Amino acid sequence: MPELPEVETVRQGLTPVLVGRRLIRVQANRPNLRLPIPVDLAQRCVGRTVLALDRRAKYLLLRLEGGTVALIHLGMSGSMVARRLESHPDPGTHDHVIFETEDGWRVTFRDPRRFGLITLTTEDALDTHPLLAKLGPEPLSEAFDARVLVNGLGRRLTPIKMALLDQTIVAGLGNIYVCEALFRSGISPKRTAASVTGRRADRLAEAIRQVLVDAVAAGGSSLRDHRQADGELGYFQHAFAVYGREGEACPGCDCDVAKTGGIQRITQSGRSTFFCPRRQR
DNA sequence: ACGAGAACCTGTTTGC
DNA sequence: TGCAAACAGGTTCTCG
């Protein structure tokens, strides 16, 4: 599920609950997710104050007093929801890790498919951590523009759709926002990565930035599992131009859907791509 | 090195 | 109605 906008939404929502607060209880309810949950997770977190909650690509970085950093990835179906401790909903089967603060908040990491992960590292080792070291530029930072994008795409012959999912070229995009950014920039998902240069690259870099900004402002997209930190749904799914809209009218075309077939769905490397063949070339 | 496909896991939707 | 297949927001490994 969660792409950059969903992770950023969670980060923003959890920040007021966690930052500046001491953790008084951390409990893992199973030994592993995609990776083992460190056996000393609680020992290294409890009693420490949260200094910051940051995001790098689709990872959350929970920075603790003393230099410990918890790296959290939500995988496909992960969520992090904060509730007051005195409200005690049934603990769900997929509530894998619980964080509790000194002032009575409980943050629950839930992840039915368990493609997510929680691991520990330190401030010293963060830049060279295997999960982070190869990530490309943050698309919402100054470090990202058309020149950087073109450089990353290089001479690759893979479709631009696949190149944008490669986290080493640009970090944070997933299936939804790649489809939406390609639509906004009028670029066919089937075009080779290397052929996206010049004004096309300008449009694509800008579309990536814009679609992410719009999605963060809408609290991300809730197709199934995504929840904001307060448990509310995101609502950017209502603003999709193409994603999940096979057969519907393209919002940029005024042609007859019955004639053109509207938005098309194709499969690229085993994943669905949605696009308008008339507007995207 | 590159690119395609499979694997990881559970839940929901779709089709016969 | 019931059951099987297809599909789902991600990442990583293997194979050609």
What can be said about this structure in brief?
With 281 residues, this protein is an alpha+beta fold.
Summarize the helices and strands and which ones pair or pack.
Layout lengths: L3 H15 L4 E6 L12 H5 L4 E7 L2 E6 L3 E6 L5 E6 L10 E7 L3 E6 L6 E6 L23 H8 L6 H6 L9 H11 L12 H20 L39 H4 L3 E5 L2 E5 L6
Antiparallel strand pairs: 1-6, 2-3, 3-4, 4-8, 5-7, 6-7, 9-10
Helix pairs in contact: 1-6, 3-6, 5-6
This protein binds a DNA duplex (16 and 16 nucleotides) through helix 5.
Describe this structure in words.
The chain has a 4-stranded antiparallel sheet with strand order 1-6-7-5. The two termini are 27 Å apart. It has 281 residues and is an alpha+beta fold. Helix 1 (4-18) packs parallel to helix 6 and helix 3 packs across helix 6. It is built from 7 helices and 10 strands. It has helices spanning 4-18, 41-45, 146-153, 160-165, 175-185, 198-217, 257-260; strands at 23-28, 50-56, 59-64, 68-73, 79-84, 95-101, 105-110, 117-122, 264-268, 271-275. A hairpin with a 3-residue loop joins strand 3 and strand 4. It folds into 2 domains: 4-125, Alpha-Beta Barrel (N-terminal domain of MutM-like DNA repair proteins), CATH 3.20.190.10; 146-275, Orthogonal Bundle (Helicase, Ruva Protein, domain 3), CATH 1.10.8. The mean pLDDT is 95. The protein is globular. The protein binds a DNA duplex (16 and 16 nucleotides) through residues 1-3, 6, 34, 58, 73-77, 94, 112-117, 156-158, 162, 165, 167, 174-177, 220-221, 223-226, 269-270, 272.
